[in-house]
Amino acid sequence: MITLTLPEWILALLGVHLAILLVLSIFYVVRRLRWTPRRRATPFIFRCSVCGHVYLDRRNVPMAECAKCGNMNESIKDI
Ligand SMILES: [Zn+2]
Question: How far is the centre of ligand 1, averaged over its atoms, from the C-alpha of 57 (Å)?
Answer without folding.
Answer: 14
